[in-house]
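Input sequence (122 aa), recorded before submission:
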Amino acid sequence: MTTEENAERRVKFERPLDIRVMTIDGTRSGEGRLIEISDRDARIEVTGHAAELSEFFLMFTGFGNPVFRRCRRTWTHGGQIGVSFERTIIGIKSSNEIPQTGPALPAMPESAVIPAVASRAR
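Predicted structure, token format:
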């Protein structure tokens, strides 16, 4: 496998996508544009206070339900900043990624199951 084949897949947008940047505590937010993204990081363009943040939420709001990733700024060049995505337990995970806490609950006995009541159509 060559280095290019090992390289992480990146998506570069011809027309950058609109995004929102929100402080971790949720008190301030600003607008920006997504230029390039991969599974681990992204290049975005922001203005104002958002360019000064070292850690924040990157929110994608133009696709129905909002999607967000927790980010840490890794570099700055003018109005563009590079961010790395922090791994959190927020979002959908495979069963292998979910930490197991304690023993599993026992199965419910059939005698405890309440039968469903059929509704009558009138």
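Checked by second reader. The helical segments are 3-6.
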